[in-house]
Amino acid sequence: MKHCLFLGCLILTASVAGQVTHAPTADECQADQRLWLSQIEGDNSKLSFDVLRQMAGEMDKCYEVDPPNQRKYYGTMSEASAAMAARLSKFIQRHQLWKQFEEEDAAGKR
Question: Could you tell me the residue range of the domain that residue 79 belongs to?
């Protein structure tokens, strides 16, 4: 019984530890910002929507971690958000959902 309890605690601890995220350092933020901005401004079709979302999320964290470079992080976050918005817009156009979107928006479905 003691072995089962110990094993259960070990598994629980490992799964909780796997979910812990750390704040990026200022050096990591600066390096990521430079790299990611060049990727987003270049041919960002190779970046998935999820990767763009993760980039924007990390830049949001960096905004707090490295205050002297907040403008750069905001700019990169904005570029990632704009790329995501463009993809969503193209999806809506490609699937001919503009009319439905406009009707639902006008009806207050937001």
Answer: 25-106
